[in-house]
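User: Teach me something about this protein's shape.
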Amino acid sequence: MKCSLCGLEYDENAVSCHAACPLARHCTVVCCPGCGYQTPDTSKSRLARSLRRVFGINHAPAPETRGHRCCLRDLATGKTGRVISVDTDNEAVAERLLIMGIMPGCDLTLVQRRPAIVVRAGYTELSLEDDIAKAIVMEVPA
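Assistant: First, the predicted structure itself:
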């Protein structure tokens, strides 16, 4: 499994979320050993199976159309891309970006480059430092 927040690859069967949790044996939450990001394991969740059955949700992955990858700093002004990962070793920066809504899967539009890099995430505009913008990996539609 690959963590969608920090990008660390790990075996979800070898990781226990919280050893002191009384539900640890039947827990359906997988925690990343690198950053602690919690992801539900839908294959073990009874609720997820029930919802798929009731609503007829097919769990097959959607067909992907991939564009090219670049860092946010290299994105053209006015272009929109989807965040693939945040490649930083600084946990405080990763957490601050997550709080501001910049996480894998969200769409960002580069509004301006100078004097500071300004991006739009939904209806929010944020100013980012150059090194932080360099750490955000984007996928831009072809």
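Now, about its shape. The chain is about 20% helix and 25% strand. The first strand starts at residue 29 and ends at 31. If you'd like, I can walk through any region in more detail.
User: That's plenty for now, thanks!
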